[in-house]
Amino acid sequence: MKYSFNRLIRNSITKSIIKKVIPKQTYSSVVDYLNKGPELKLYYKNDIVSIDNYNKEIHGLMPVYYCDDTPNFGDFIGPYLISKITNKPVLNVRLFQHSGIMAVGSIAHMVDRKNMVMWGSGLMYPLTDEKIRDFKRYNPEILSVRGMETAKLLLEAGIDVPNHSFYGDPALIMPLFYKPSVSSPKKIGICPHYVHKPYFLKNIFIKNSLKIIDVQQDVETVVDSISSSSVCISTSLHGLIIAQAYGIPWVWLEISDNPLFGKDFKFKDFFSTLNKSQVSHVRVSLEEVKSLDYDMIAEKATLPDKLYNEDLILESLKIYLGRNVES
C-alpha cells in the first residue's frame, strides 16, 4: 500500500488533487513518512551509489532539481551539464525531499526546502509575498542567476544575489562540453516551443530552405539541429540561447496571442546578458504563422554581443562543487 500511494503522489496531476483535498500538514506528514524508507544502494562504475531517504543523504549521484513532466530539451540542459561537469549520474529530486541544485530554467520560484543551490536559473514572474517568505525561510545558496531581471526582483525582495559577472544561463556554456554533429547544407531552422509546435507542424509548408527543430527530442539532437542551421527563428527561449552559444544568428519570434507562461519575462532576463539593442524580435499572431515569409525574417537575424562570461558561469558552479561535493 505504501508503494502504491507513493507512486500515486509522484504523478503531477494526482499530486495536485491530493494536495487540495488533504490538509497541508497531513500531506507533508504522509510524504515525510513515505520518504523514510530503507536506504537504496546501487552499483555504478566500481562504486556504491546510495540514497538514504531517512537522513536525506545521497552518495555517488548528483541531486538536481528540474522539471521533467513534459519532454523539453531546455529542461534537461541543467542535468546534462551537471552530469558532464561532475562525471556522475544525476538524480531528479523534485518530487522527493532531498536538497539539490536548481540549474537552468524558470524554476527559481519553486524553492520549497532547505539547503537548495541555485545555478543560473531564473524567475518566471515577480515573487508573491508567499514566495518571498519561502525564499527567506529556505534560504537557498545562490551561485548565479540567469540575468539582471531575476536579480532585480530578488534584490527588491531583500534576497542577496552574487556579483553580476557570474550571471548567464548555463546553457551558454554547452560548447565547452558538447561538440555538435553539423550537417549540410544548412537550412533556416524554425524552433517552436513545444506549446507552439503542433500549430507550426500543421501550418508550415516545409521547403528546401526551411526545417522545423523539435525541442522535444534529446539535448544533443536539438543542439545538432540548431548548430546545423544557417539561422534560428525561435519561439523557445533555449532555442535562442543555444543558437547564441554556438554562434548561429537568431530571431526571437514572439507569438502575441499565445504567449508562454510568464510572457516575455524570461526572454528579457536572458537579453539582459547581451547587448539588448542588437536583439532581433518579430511579433506575430498564430494565424500569421502559416503565411510568414521566413526567408525575409531570416535576413533580420543577429548574433548580439555578449555581456556574459562562460568561464565565470562555469566557475561559479565549480567553486561550490569544490567545497561541497565528494570526489
Mind sketching the topology for me?
Layout: H1 2-10, H2 12-21, H3 24-34, E1 40-44, E2 47-52, E3 57-59, E4 62-65, H4 73-86, E5 90-92, E6 101-103, E7 117-119, H5 129-138, E8 141-144, H6 148-156, E9 187-191, H7 197-203, E10 210-212, H8 219-227, E11 229-234, H9 237-245, E12 250-255, H10 265-271, E13 281-284, H11 286-289, H12 294-298, H13 310-324
Q: What would you note in describing this structure?
A:
The chain is α/β, with parallel strands linked by helices and 327 residues long. It has 13 helices and 13 strands. Strands 5-4-6-7-8 form a 5-stranded parallel sheet, covered by helices on one side. It has a 5-stranded parallel sheet with strand order 10-9-11-12-13, sandwiched between helices. The radius of gyration is 21 Å and the shape is globular. The protein starts with a helix and ends with a helix.
Rg computed from alpha carbons, rounded to a whole number of angstroms:
21 Å
Strand tally is 13
- Termini separation comes to 38 Å
Indicate the structural class: alpha/beta
Q: What's the rounded overall pLDDT mean?
A: 88
How would the global form be characterised? globular
Bin the helical content: 25-40%
Task: Sketch the topology as an H/E string, one letter per element.
Answer: HHHEEEEHEEEHEHEHEHEHEHEHHH
Beta content: 15-25%
Largest sheet: 5 strands, parallel
Widest sheet: strand ordering: 5-4-6-7-8
Q: How many distinct helices?
A: 13
